[in-house]
Amino acid sequence: MLAAALVLPAVAVAQDAPQDAQEAQEAGIGQNVIIVTGSRIARPDLEASSPVAIVSAEDIRATNAVTVEQILATNPQFASGFGQSSNNPGDGSATINLRALEETRTLVLIDGKRAPSYDTQGAVDVNSIPAALIKRVDVLTGGASAVYGSDAIAGVVNFILDDRFEGVTADGSTQVTTRGDGAIYNLSLTGGVKLGDRGNLVVSGGWSKRNGVFFRARPRLSFAVDSYDLVSSGGSSNTVPTAFDIPGSGRLQVTPGGGLTPDVALYNFNPVNYAQSPFERWNVMTLGRYELTDGVEAYARAMYSDVKVQLQLAPTATAGFLFNLDPSNPFLSAAQQAAFFDTAANPGLQINDGSGVATDPTARAGTSVIGIRRRMIETGGRLEDFHTKNTQVLGGFRGDMGSLNWDVFAQYGQSKKHSILRNDLSYTALQQALDVVAGPGGAPACFNPSNGCVPLNVFDVGTVTPAALAFVLRDADERTKISQFIAGGNIGGDLGFLQSPLASHPAAFSVGVEYRKEKGRTSVDPLYASGDLIFYGQGQNISGDYDVKEIYAELKIPLIEDRPFVQSLGLETGVRYSDYSTVGGVWTYKAGGDWSPTNGVRFRGIYQRAVRAPNIYELYSPVVAGTGGLGVDPCAGTVSAAVQAVCIAQGAPAAAFGPGGVSIVPQPISGQINIFTGGNPNLGEEKSDTWTLGAVLNPPQLRGFSASVDY
């Protein structure tokens, strides 16, 4: 709350452009280069009709922020994206989710240029942006594709870096919770020198580390509760000791004596999950600028970051999958033998007749189909290690020609992420290890002893042996490489021939062109690609690219200035045409205006059409199995003949439905089900329309006061 109180006043004060050079300098805006987020037209007297909130360097230091995610979390425009509390789901990144429209609809810029993405979905990992060099953060809410292109549906977050720093500064900070854990450390060293009277060179390096905190460290978080009432147990039916889904009998759990009870104790998965994930980052950035002549400046930026994050999820489990159990299994107690095979006592049991052996060798005649829910707590948890390396280089020239200013640039960005997902179960290995028969001397033995099969005992309250666990556990490996190339240029300034007779300033314009190519590849190991892992599902081998050629223009024109009841009245318009190699040509545009009846009062409004072209994942990902959300499966329980027919048509085995329509299809586990997802190269673009109306009040009688209201 204190951090929010420190940041929010600056957000309100900084709604308008500085009124004079002194205020511009105090706001951290350079004398020669003005970076405007709401528009590419950099003329102080022409204020944008879109609301732009600003977080200053002072606000950042006041929050003692180590990561960009912490800087922005105190502002109400941002919903929760991936970050330090993203353990499940999560991939170690820190993303920006403006107005809860998801990360892929928030465009992230660095000094007005598009930041490189880190995955095939086009999201930006802001862990790669060093907090030490951030001069301010501009947040433009609402569609902005006419100005900046695709993805700016929710808005734009523009990180302005300090490329004119001089001297040497070393920063160090630490944070710790009131419980003495979760420490965060940050060290940075920044140096800057003037290159004569014409340029600057800035180099900054940093190291950050964040210790993990498990949910079990907080009494209030150590128990999983139901999301409907926040009181009832929200644990998982994948529990320990094992629970069985028995056709005709429901769900029963093993007791210490080998019996079965319907009183199933759910597994509390909270304690082993991270509330704050561990994180370590090394980063370095170099900024340079040099005036080649009085009207031409060369500039460049290079950045590199190395980020390691580890997540931990609840231990893997058999997930309620159906397995065929042999009646001679020596692990079965007398109670389990009766519950699994006594069809006289339970006609609902599903006993195989041997017809399915061709597709499933474990479905021999006489085996019983039972759903098994056993949490493998012996693993300690599913560990996910993410190692990401981000690189970006940028160079360009900018300058002015009288009343015109211009900028040409090219940039290349690359991200490499290596993910290792540990301690999951192989479904095929489980089938083999659970297909246990009586071997020599009645000892438990795998019916299929190949590959060194070790019989798996989940039928008592004891622990699984290390040898049995090693046979069924698997790791997954995934590598992603993303590259982005952008080249463009724009020119803008005053249009002396276009001036309203009621205004003292002419119109201003900006026109430009841009070319962008995005390329991505994700490769997974054969095991992960096979879909054999129970919880990690099926990894995706993805490869694809697309490019876009764009041309855009903006125009702002003062209509009336310094007249009775109209201190200023102006209009702004913009249009962009984008030709994608995938979706073809698309148009984006904007139109708005502002009216100031008197000094200190301004009303503004704007309409914007924005688009988002499909990303590499949405275009080229193959159809694979994964996990989705579902509260109730309509194929579970007692179903009608009509519903049963639909269920079978969509893949449910006919043997899953017994007399009277009683189904052995289990209900979803913790609201999750296995699903299939995939891309589509024929996808079109998303379109959005944004209308914004607002007012800004900063009366001169109240110096230092400013307020803005926008809808």
Largest sheet: 15 strands, antiparallel
Radius of gyration, in angstroms, nearest whole number: 31 Å
Average pLDDT: 87
**Strand-pairing-aware structural class:** mainly beta
Give the fraction of residues assigned to helices: 10-25%
Strand order of the largest sheet: 8-9-10-16-17-20-21-24-25-26-27-28-29-32-33
Characterize the overall form: elongated
Compute the number of helices. Answer: 11
Uncertain runs are 1-32
β-strand amount = 35-45%
Terminus-to-terminus distance: 24 Å
The total strand number stands at: 33
Which short descriptors sum up this protein?
five-stranded mixed beta sheet; 11% helix; 33 strands; 43% strand; disordered N terminus; 15-stranded antiparallel beta sheet; elongated; 711 residues; mainly beta; single chain
